[in-house]
Structure formats: C-alpha cells, structure tokens
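re: ur question from the group chat, yeah i did fold both. here u go
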Amino acid sequence: MLSSRPQMLELLHDAELTPESLYRELTDDMNRSVRVEELVYLAADRVPGLVPTRAEIDTELQLPLAEKTGIQLAQALLISEFLSLPREGIHLCMASLEPTQLALDHLDEFLSIGAVDFGPVRVERRGAAGWLELSNPKHLNAEDETTLPFTEAAVDLITLDPEIQIGIFRGGLVEHPRHGSIRVFGSGINLTHLYYGRVGFLFYIVRDLSYVNKLYRGLIGPEPDAEHENLWMAVVERFAVGGACQLLHTMDHVIGVRGARLFLPARKEGIIPGVSPLRLPRSVGDRAARQAILSGREWTVGDADAELLCDEAVDPDDLEDAIAARVDALTDPGLVSAVANRRAMRIGAEPLDIFRQYMAEFSIAQAHCHLSPALVKNLEMNWNAGSRRV
C-alpha cells in the first residue's frame, strides 16, 4: 500500500490517470456528488493498490491502535490530493454538505411528529427550536463511530424542517457515581474506542467535512440549487472537552452553566483538534489559542476570559429559563435576517476555499498523528487506556 505522494502519483500514472482525472471519473465529471467515505472505496476498486479496500479497512479496524498496519495513510494521501485541487476539492466539500440518506429516510416522520430517536442521538422540535441531544452515557457523551452518522442525520433534520429557526445542541444525561444523573455536553472523541482501534482515520475527516461543517455552513439540497440554514446554540453543562469544545466555534450562541470546563486536550492526546487551529484564534485570539492547543489552557464558564467562548454564564437553576429567553431573542427578528447576517459574517471569516485548503493539510497531518506510536503512549500515560474496557 502506498505511503508517500510520489508512490501515489506513480500508481496513478501507471493507470494513465492523474488525481484530477480520477476524481472526475469517479464523480461522472463532477455531475454526481460522492462523499469522501464512499470515494476512497470507489478509488480502491478503480486502481487496485492505490488505497485499501473496504474489506481491508474492516480487518484493520479489528486491530488495537498499537497494532495498526498503517494502510489508512493511503486514504489520507488521496483525500488530501483531491482536496488540494481547487474545483474538485470544493466539489468534494459540498458533497458532504448534502443531507444524508439516513436523514431523508426519517424526514417525513420528523416533519409529521416532530421527533426521531436514533438511540445515541435524539432530535425533537419544540416550537421554533430543534433540540439535538447526544447520548453516549457509558462514555460521558463522547463521539465515536456509533454516534457520528446519527448526529449528522439529526443536524440534517433540524436544518431541513421549515418550522425550525434555531437548533439547540445539548448533551444527554449520564450516571455519575457521586452526583447521580447529570447532563454533560460532551467529552470529545471516545478515547477508549480510539485506543482499541475502533475509531478509524476516516472518522476525523467525515466528522469535520459533514456535520460540524453543516453546523457552520448549513446544508445544500436535496432539491437542486437549494440551501438550508438556521442558527445554532450550544448548552454546555459540566464540560466541553476536545471535539465538544470544537463545536463551540461553529455556534451562534453558547450558554454555559457556571463552573463548566472548556478545553482542547490535544497536547495530551497527540492528535489535531479538528478545525480548531483554524477557528479558535478568531474567538479567543492567536496567543490564547496557542496556549489552549499547545499547552493545555482551559476556560471555566463564569470567568471573564471564558466570555470569548461562552456568551452567557448562568446558574443551574436558571438554565432552562435562559435557554427559552435566548430562543425568543434569536428568533424574534425572523429567520431570513438572522441567517443572512450569519452568512455575511462567514464570508470574510472562513470562505469555503480556505476550509478546503485547511482540510487538505489536515488529512495528512491527522493521519500521521493517528498512526503514531506517540498517540498510543499518550493514551496509556494520560488516560490509563490499557486498564479500560470497551
């Protein structure tokens, strides 16, 4: 399996292809949208040896992280090459902004009764608000392969519902040994599943190209030339760690319970915290962002410096009233003006082409982190991963 860009280009040359011509062939000259997780397997069938097949990846995912063979690096190299192409890369980004088939299969149900329970994720319409509740209680509402498709489908449903003007992202109840049932916004990537090899490299790419980017940019389709977008609000209880903290960069409003911790433990984990290196400096400034990503700086809701990440700090007893008041305030002017202003702010802050370029670099860099022995060491040293069980 290829492990370098020159090897990849040589294999493509032998097949009388370039990255551009391969992408165009696999997408019918960009007349068909193909998500990245499907694209890599189409490429595997078209050019044997270029990237691993689905069967090879299925076998790889049975191995603990320390025993991975490294074949996922080939996927990263090809994805990076596609994303590095300006037109093709934008086309690939936009493919992941279309609603998933899972969401479309449940759309009539959601529009009819206003609720869908996917298990790990529940979605419900309450007036002008759509509530998304992430529920992975065994792992403190961490994200992994079991939550990702349902989270994206829930984002799709909320965004496609014409009655909903604002989405609310909240963590579900978990059982705490000392505090009983409590809500936790999220603990980031499931480090236990990561250590035991159940989180593949594609998880990082799919997550940020799809539902996280949909929170930030809205949806395209399913009807031709249609765009769907609404406001999003996060309700942070207890903590927002890693990937959960990354979500705050995409939100239009963040309400947090006083004392909740916000941090990106990238230094201790040994992976890149999604798109935070691109987005976090816009919120807290370059120096604070470097402190957070490189040195583990944390923020606590209620402290003055946390105001750059959290718009409102409230006491637990006042939380529900604060949510209701903010929903009323954000939806009162009407959806059109709110979304128009949201889009206007995004144009200068992060054009889609800047995101494309970031993801092209992120693909390779994250693959090297994911497959590094240092990641295994970090998980054992900072997470006691070897003593935990899936």
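okk and heres the other one u asked abt
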Amino acid sequence: MADILKKIEKDGLKNLYLFYGTENYLIDYYIDAMKKKFVNQNFLDMNFNIFNGNVFEIIDCAKLLPFFSEHRLILIKESDFFYTGKKNEVEMILKNMPDFCETNILVFVEKKIDKRNKLYKKICDVGEIFEIKSPSKKELIKWIIKIFKRDGKEILPDDAELILKNVGSDMYFLKNEIEKLIAYKNDSGKITRDDINLMCSKNIETKIFDLVFHMGNKNLELALEDYNNLIFLKEQPFMILFMIARQFIFILQAKIFYESGKDINSIANLLNTRSFIVSDCLKQGKNFSCDKLICAIRECRELDFKIKTGQTLDKIAVENLITKYSA
C-alpha cells in the first residue's frame, strides 16, 4: 500500500491528483498519508479543506495561500466533475486553474470517471492519476497478517483467510474485526480459529453462502439452523429469499462461464467480484446442475411475488423452499 506514496515522492509533488475506484479504505489511507506528510499538523484545520461539488468554493480555496504551512491540501470528493452533467463547472475550474496558488494540492476522489473528460485529460498532462483497485485475496491475507504482527499477534495464513471469508473483503469491516480480535486476545500472541469463530461477525453474504452450501450438501438440519439464526438476528424472510436467489444466480453464472472455458480470474472480472469468491461458487456449483439452479431461481422469483401479494406467509414459504432444495 506504500507504492503510491513512494511514487509521489519519486516523481515530485504535483498540484493535481485524481484517485478513483471503490476501495474506500485504501483511498482514505493514501489521503491521510498525504495530509500527514505535506501539511503542517499544527495548522491542519487551516490547511486541509474538504469539498463535494461547490465549484465556487473550490476555486476560491485553491487561490488561497497556505496558513503557516508549506502546502494546503484540498480534497474534492465525489463531485462528478469527471462524468457527465458538469461541463460548465469543469470549464470554470480549468479557466481559473492558472490563478491557483502553486503550493496548493488539489486531490479529486471519484468512484467512476470518463477518460474523455477535459479535467481528466488535464490531470493526465500536469498531475497524477491513480486507479485504486481492490486488493487480491493474497494481498488481503498478507495485510491481515501484517496488522496482527504490528500488534504483537500471530495468525496463520489459513486463519487469516477464514477472517476474510467470514467478514468479506471490505477493508473497513476487516479492520474492525481485526481490532476486536486484538482486544479480545490482549494477553496472548496467538489468534486461533476458535477466537475467529467466537469474535468475528459473519456478514449476510457469508451466512447465505453457508446456508446454500448446506442445502447443496443435503444437510437439512444445518440449513434450517442457518435460516433460523438469520431470523433470530432480525433478517426479514423476503430479504433472505432475495439473497438465496442472488447466490443461486451467482453460482449459475460462474458455472456457465467456467464450463465455457473461462478461467477463474476472467470470471471474476466479468462478475465484478474477487477470484476466491468465484472459486467458492464453483465448489458449490458441483452440488447443483444448471437445470436445478434455473428451477430454483425461477421458484425464488415466483415465491417473492406470492409473498409480496399476500398469497403466502413469508417465513414458512422460505423454510419450505430450503427444505425442498435440501432434500
């Protein structure tokens, strides 16, 4: 995660930066590192400014000299300046740019961009653009191990992977669960699977994955236990039904792509997910034929309609579906 900071130092500080992507944790990490490195911390409130899309405020701020600091850092988040509909605002920024204070650093943060955009092209010419991609499974496991090690804790790679599977790949959620484990094991340096299963909260996707896994393995008892646990946690039956259908669709898509000759990484790109999730879906797919998955998806949709139109009771209907596909 330090590569971008090294590149900024190596290439020399620019006045314009664009970070784009959906991995908010990493983007915030880089912004925080820039803030600490380039802005006088004693006068941070005076020299670190955050805006969304008010072009007049951004322009006025960009013209101000830093206050008792070598640099002012101006953060512009999700302004949509790099996508359609903000042509006039972009023209105003470009027109006023020659008047911006040369010691100010403008950092734009966007989820998506259009590379044909004029502001994007301007930053390409005189600034720096970084696409922040979600880390791979291998990178996340290394990151988890590193955080534990930093706190004097030890965890095996397989156990770090278990955290990843339970919690999901959102780095903010992962960090929160890691901190819970560190606090829990304050007097010990070893993180075990029992600790993880006791302390780490499984996200809804993981719980549904377990439920469908038990359905595929024809383990009705565990499938119903998973379902009742979700009900106990106040998950609504219609939402559980939606998530089951979503998982069936995901398994079917992964299965079809794989059988057509595509590798796991290609499938992950097509489905906009991580490769290890595709691998797990393919393992689940061994328990279901494509025809059975199609029937299950169709039945989920029909059941959803009946629940919404009051033709059946939601809790019992979903329970019957789970029972049917666990038989």
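fwiw on the second one: The longest strand covers residues 104-110. The mean pLDDT is 91. idk if thats what u expected
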